[in-house]
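Journal club prep, shared notes

We agreed each person brings one worked example of a sequence with its structure written out as tokens. Mine is Sigma 54-interacting transcriptional regulator. I'm keeping it raw so we can talk through how to read the token line rather than staring at a rendered picture. Sequence first:
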Amino acid sequence: MSIFELVYKVRDIMTDGFVKVCSNETIENALNKMMQSYRNEVLIMDDDEKLIGIFTMKDAIRIRNMGISFKDFVIKYASKDVSTIDCNSSARYARDLMIKKNIGRLPVVENNHIIGIITNNNFRDIFYIKMDELFKLQNYVFDNLHEGVCMCDEKGIVKYWNKASERVYGVKLNNILNRYIGDFFPNAMLLKVLNTEKRIDNVFHEPVKGKFVVLSAFPIYNSDKKLVAVVSTDRDMTDEVNLTKQLEDEKKKVEFFKDAYKNELSSKYNFSFIIGKNKKIIDAISIAQKVAPTSTSVLITGNSGTGKEVFAKAIHKASERTGSFVAINCSAIPVNLFESELFGYVEGAFTGAIKKGKIGKFELANKGTLFLDEIGDMPMEMQAKLLRVLQDGVIYRLGSEKSIITNTRIISATNKNLNELISEGKFREDLFYRLAVVQIKLPDLKDRREDIRDLSNLFFRQVSKDEGIEINYIDEKIYKILADYKWDGNIRELKNVIQRMVVLSNDGKITVKSIPEYIRNENIRNYEYNDENKYDLQKITENIERKTIEKVMKMVHGNKNKAAKILNIKRSTLYYKLSKFK
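Then the structure, token by token:
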């Protein structure tokens, strides 16, 4: 069997641009379709899409000369003894069949359906094109192998030397081709195979000083069993040595960061670092401390920025679980990637999958804690799959039927009302009960204003240390201003504000001017931080006037003319007051 027969099938040389007509169509219709498609034939199909005949341009000329009307049915004058060939047959067999039956066209079938056609006109061209492609493919393959490939004749003269051999040994093809291999590599293993006529496999070898390879070589015989050549493949082990060293270095880095992460959890995310005098936060800490040593699922609720992940990490640290803390934000993952992110996937599971697959978050958190943030945004389909995992403790990587048992503790968090989502059909009730065995609700920062001073001081210390900026003075007034602010972003917003104040501080001093202007303006509008002005009628009047103008300006989207009319004042007066109140 030739290489052409082995590699190329009928489907490789056929054309799928064939034309079909129904048995009840006229000759005229068939001719029109042939001319429109630049074809010399049409395939005639019955009502079940079965091939029942072939009509060619040659047939059309013949019936025209016979004086037959082109309005007649095409099936009457078609060739009905039609041979077909399976698409997986060899190209050589197709050619032989056409010669044997003396036919110029051969329809191609797959599962009893026509999918293409081979014609005599283009077979020869396609055959030679494919042979040329095959030779190019062969050279392309050998030149792109990682291993060096060398072939010598029975006298040790180099007849083939691929690009990898050039890279491995630094010897160009033009310099070594048709030269004796021993002139370049005196101890070449090819010479040993030529002498012994025995193959060697996967031996470590040093062809030249300082160059180590893993080498295999084998003899080639002709039909008379005479040795005519020998071929070797050499793999440069420098890559493997470097890769092994790199893996060792990366392993050390992973261990270092793993220890550093654990130390971070220990130093920053234990319960002693959760500051609070407020009763609600004290109650939350108490529940978290009690549930931490268990394997119970915990649901932490609260608005954005209230510290849900801080609590989750503290629970994990106090649990003494040996595995890692792995967090995943359910609102940030595209729906079509959810399953692969949680459970991982094997190689070839889907288009774009990483070679060798990817481990999922459940496996990463084995013997540790998986933190599912924003659980209320998890798609319904994934909720069902998550429920099954929580029930069985078994996961399956995407594209694999192999089960993986995990011992993963689940802590979830949300800023949404899951009971409302359940009533709306957007969250599974049975999953809710699995996740919310213990619930911890965190209060907003505005509901625990007594903690703002201590939290501010904590963040001042942390940011100062992280940024390397020493703070030696903090104005007492800032605590009152910060305590009176609304803090829609909760603790996260407070920390960001403190960070801004520290990095923009002058001479290590934090003053009222260090506070962002929007907070100071809000404080002025509320006008409650200065007790001695509490009963100042002029200040109170100005405050009411300011709030009223601000409300009307927002209502009319900044249209001063409309605002003046609603406020029943002159436009010039409005301009004055806008300037006055900034």
